[in-house]
Amino acid sequence: MADVGEVLMSVLSTIRVPKPGDRVHKDECALSFSSPESEGGLYVCMNSFLGFGSQYVDRHHARSGQRAYLHITRTRKAKEDDNNSGSGHPPKKKPTRLAIGIEGGFDVEQDQYEEDVKVVILPDRQEVTSEDLATMPDVVRERVSLSMAGIMAADSVSHTLQVQQWDGEVRQESRHAADLKQLDNGVKIPPSGWRCEVCDLQENLWMNLTDGKVMCGRRYFDGSGGNNHALLHFQETGYPLAVKLGTITPDGADVYSYDEDDMVLDSKLPEHLAHFGIDMMTMEKTERTMTELEIAVNQRVGEWEVIQESGTTLRPLFGPGLTGMKNLGNSCYLNSVMQVLFTVPDFQSKSVPYFSYSPHPPLPPFSLFVYHRAKLGYGLLSGEYSKPAPDPGDENGCGLSNINQIGIAPRMFKALVGRGHPEFSTNRQQDAQEFLLHFINMVERNCRSGPNPSEAFRFLVEERIVCQQSQKAKYTQRVDYIVQLPVPMDQATNTEELQEAEHRREEGDSSAPTVRAQIPFTACMAALSEPEILTDFWSSAVQAKTTATKTTRFASFPDHLVIQIKKFTFGLDWVPKKLDVSIDVPDTLDLSALQATGQQPGEELLPEVAPPPLMTPDVEVKGILGSHGNEEDDSLYSPLLCQSVSPVLDDSTVSQLCEMGFPMEACRKAVYYTGNTGIDAAMNWIMGHMDDPDFSAPLVLPGCSSGPGTTPTESLSEEHLATIVSMGFSRDQATKALRATSNVLDRAVDWIFSHLDDLESMDVSEGGRSAAESEGREPPPGPRVRDGPGKYELFAFISHMGTSTMCGHYVCHIKKDQQWVIFNDQKVCASEKPPKDLGYLYFYRRVAE
Predict the structure, then answer these.
(1) CATH number, domain with residue 286
(2) Could you give the CA distance from residue 215 to residue 231 in angstroms, rounded to a whole number?
(3) Is 256 annotated among the ligand-binding residues?
(4) Any known ligand binding at 820?
(5) Which GO terms describe its biological process (predicted)?
(6) Global pTM value
(7) 100 in the same domain as 16
(8) pLDDT tens digit sequence for 740-792
(9) Domain containing 249: what range?
């Protein structure tokens, strides 16, 4: 065997020192979920800085010819405090600070590791330690040492995805504090005995620092708190800062800026309080601070304990399909969704076979998503990582740590699916339903000509609108993936208990229990299926606005049905809140009664006549060729203008909407599609279209070119055409979508799924026919959809704990071999009491007849 020094000299030209901007993959194998903590450690290529597990580094060497790798191994150390108590675990301290990973905050239980680093030369696996380098020539020692130090010092690709510290108490100085205007109105505030000046409430009181008015705070999601009088006072006067009475101490107080919509610092607080006769140095704390209230919410007993099945002894499970996923910092929404999706046969059979470790040529860029999706599927289904996590500090094997798995940390996958997205690329908590749709959208865009597993969820919805004056009907169809069930709070079966609890809270009874509304599932389904009254519908039959009814039915039944309980809503003050409800969701579901029937015998259809254009007198109408707009009002349909004409929009209405925080392009579309009829109509349009995939996309007039140089004869990308055709649409339909969106593939895919009405008259490609043909039923036109009986059984549900989608925690329950299993990040256990009544997303599969 050659001398190791000579070997290093021979490969020295291939050893690089990381530069700023180099991506160093030192936490996760490129081909598996092996890490430095895995058996055999991780080998980092000292040229490309890609990481490889011990079972794949030889293949990379054979394929690339690279010989020098930095071998990193980590061994978990026993915690110093582990033996301070009889159980091996000291009592956990309650958090006193709204933070993660710092003193007094929520403990993220970061493990401590002993790290071993050395250079390994393949194929003979000759090892070189730092001590060995000291005896080698200067040129070798310098280059290799710098490369080793650079790799270890560089931030890994996943570093920004991991939450190390977060401090929710770090507040910024208010921009109003320095020159806050205070009225000389003679108001003096006593040191105690405060009451709201409007409703006489004696708790959760805030004093406005401009005029000294004492008002109650906001009403919380569960009905407690105040009556919003301090907020209403700001809306009337514009006075921005308020201090929470009862939190004032010599060290500070809670100060809220209504204008900045956040807790803030006031460097002149002693001066501002003294103006109203309050001596900050003599005040004592009598109420919980907002931080303490938030911590209490995050530790709330009830929903959290029930959903996580706390207080019961859970039996850990291991094996194929029972692999936990590490929380990368508020990534529980991703973990829960992906666990459920890889229970679906389409994602199992059409994803995992793509994954191969054999040395193939590099995957083309469009397959990167398919590759990482398959890699994740293999990691979850193989059972390779479903092993108990080692806990050297727990000699008795007791405590929660013994049910944690090694699991997988999907760092690369999370970075890929979140890349470029304003929310999913961050560490903030997200809505699991929004992520599910985002992921399905990525699957649609990346399926190309290969199998598309998202077809398992795709279905068609038929909407039937009947003009009440002419009794003529209009039928439209659209693609959907999720059924959104409204929550009719007025149908609660325990109304008396709810009213009693509300009455006690209004009287200031702090011991009043939090009563959860009991809503029948049948009431939710009835709210979905009952006809909706459209009071301002433009009828092409009578050429005027009249009343109409809209009924929604299933034009096809998917293999797997997703139901979302619409728990998240907005209060009257536009503050997001979550409905605390219990719904008796059934194990089996029969939706046959909701199957669409299409045009009825003898039923007349509304004429295909365009409504009068809504335009300013100075806009020349070159032609009205079609319509797309608000389904409730044909008059809101946008006329097709010539290329040189731009829509005339009311700038003041657009500005008002933008000031409310809505995207500029969404505001422009709202004003355009409502024909410049005012802020109310535009706001209604926005609230009805916030879930549209192209909500924030630029305003594109149907049939018009959307950019300079785009003409009907301009060549379109054959690659883009092939992508859309592979989804089941014809070439003509794909061409129409690309021309309507300036040949931008992402926008064209969104456009084609939201404009199925336009495509009904166009032929569908052979691949777009559904399985319903085999049953003798004519499939609906449009994209490839499956159809079958509308009978389903529940096989999974995702639950959310917390006050809104912006905070809290997600877990999922999945039925495997007739046993419910709870997946709580790295904990995978047999479920004893699955809380099916508290779910957020429910997943059903078709029952075979």
Answers:
(1) 3.30.40.10
(2) 8
(3) yes
(4) no
(5) protein deubiquitination; proteolysis
(6) 0.64
(7) yes
(8) 777 777 777 767 765 654 554 443 333 333 333 334 444 444 468 899 999 99
(9) 205-299
